[in-house]
Amino acid sequence: MHYYKTIIQYEGTKYAGFQWQNGIATVQSEFNTALSSLISGKTTTMAASRTDTGVHAHMQVVKISSENQINTSAFLKSFNELLPREIRCLSIEICDGLFRPAAESLSKEYRYFFTNKTKVSKEETQFVANIANKLDIEAMRTCILALTGDHDFCNFYSSGSNVKTTIRKVFSCELTLVNPKDILPVDGLFQIPEELNECYQFKIEASGFLKQMIRHLISSLWMVGSGKLSTADFIQLLDGPKNDKHLWKVASANGLFLYKINY
Fold first, then answer.
1. All structural domains of the chain
2. CA–CA gap between residue 51 and residue 59 (Å, rounded)
3. What is the reported pTM?
4. CA distance 82 to 80
5. CA distances, 252 to each of 52, 166, 192, 219 (Å)
6. Would you say the C-alpha torsion 205, 210, 214, 217 has a positive or negative sign?
7. How many other C-beta atoms lie within 10 A of the C-beta of residue 221?
8. Cα–Cα distances in angstroms (integers) from residue 3 to residues 40, 46, 80, 106, 155, in the given order
9. Which of 61, 62, 98, 168 is the most exposed place for a label (fewest CB within 10 A)?
10. Could you tell me the end-to-end alpha-carbon distance of the chain, in angstroms, rounded to an integer?
11. Neighbours of 202 (CB within 10 A)
12. Which of 69, 23, 79, 27 is nearest to 52 (CA)?
């Protein structure tokens, strides 16, 4: 077998996440279909992160195991012509057969973009979520400071996946005002409307993430910012006993990007 490490980007709006599912459009199913059209023989793929329905990827790592050798110098052009326009392969290189994209990552970085406007256009919400309620940003930042370190996120994830522990280590997190065009490549898949020059960015880097964990954090932070949840209540939920029911709905996926994977 021959082994290759690829880096891809994708616009996740129309896909049910990365991981292959029978009869459902996913990024992996499109990736595998294009790969089988280009490379003869048996091939398998595995990624660093599954990503949920509608979530985008600025950097996703996918390992290809191929029965036959791939001509890496000619691969990218031909492969990208076969992939749908929402998926792009940025690079390919030979890797060790023992390389495991998920298990060997030191940390993953996600970014969630949102505006705080009373009214937005459909184009503005393609890659940036919106919360219309007036927000106390400093109260939200107080809660974000508390997230750094080892914590039990049992109250900040969705059931449906088998995990041994709900404890995760957060290396850094912050909430800042940014121009999304400075963060996302303007000549790539993620077309930000010309008039959208400012939004909030929630940036978080951790050892790993639970199912929909970031979107739960965003929703809970919006509740804090809206005055519906105190900073003390938020901090109590962090590392506190598990609640039987969430106090919020999960934030939309359109603002969430798997931004970087560190090895």
1. 2-94 (3.30.70.580), 107-262 (3.30.70.660)
2. 11
3. 0.94
4. 5
5. 11, 22, 18, 9
6. negative
7. 27
8. 14, 11, 19, 21, 39
9. 98
10. 23
11. 22
12. 27
**Residue matched to tokens 């280009």:** 38
- Residue 177's contacts (CB-CB under 8 Å, 6 or more residues apart) are 198, 199, 200, 201
Q: Where are the beta strands (DSSP E) in the chain?
A: 2-10, 43-47, 56-66, 87-94, 107-115, 129-130, 149-152, 167-178, 199-206, 256-262
**Spatial distance between the Cα atoms of 21 and 6, rounded to a whole number of angstroms:** 21
Give the span between the Cα atoms of 132 and 19, in whole angstroms. Answer: 33
**Residues making up the chain, counted from first to last:** 263
The pLDDT tens digits for 9-24 are 999 999 999 998 988 9
In this predicted structure, the answer to whether residue 60 has a pLDDT above a threshold of 80 is yes
**Hey, what amino acid is at 166?**
T
Distance, CA of 15 to CA of 38 (rounded, Å): 22
Question: What is each CA distance from 49 to 27, 142, 179, 239, in whole angstroms?
Answer: 12, 29, 26, 25
Q: pLDDT of 66-91, one tens digit each?
A: 999 999 999 999 999 999 999 999 99
